[in-house]
Amino acid sequence: MTFKGAFDNLHHWLAFKCPYCKSREVFLQGYQGYHSDEQYAYHLCNRCRETSVLVNDRLIKTGRS
Predict the structure, then answer these.
(1) Tens of pLDDT along the chain (65 residues)?
(2) Contact between residue 3 and residue 10 where contact means Cβ atoms under 8 Å apart
């Protein structure tokens, strides 16, 4: 493994966590479009059961209704 590969793995591990409870137990729920043709990856937290969206390699909170 190269240094860049190790750094990328570390960055993913640090950045990829639930925005609500900061748990790393999140899994892909599915893809859905939002007011455009682009599909967004929706993730569900296994701990707090909240949904978040993957944008620019980070999970962000969804708007609550």
Answers:
(1) 687 777 777 777 777 899 999 999 999 999 988 777 888 899 999 999 999 998 888 899 987 64
(2) no
Half-sphere exposure of 4 (CA within 13 A, CB side): 0
Question: Which residues, listed in sequence order, are joined to residue 29 by a DSSP beta bridge?
Answer: none
d(C-alpha 52, C-alpha 25), whole Å: 12
C-beta of residue 58 within 8 angstroms of C-beta of residue 15: yes
**7 token code pair:** 């750094």
> Where are the domains positioned within the chain?
3-61
33 neighbors 40 (Cβ within 8 angstroms): yes
CA nearest to 29, candidates 11, 54, 60: 54
Contact 41, 31 (CB under 8 A): yes
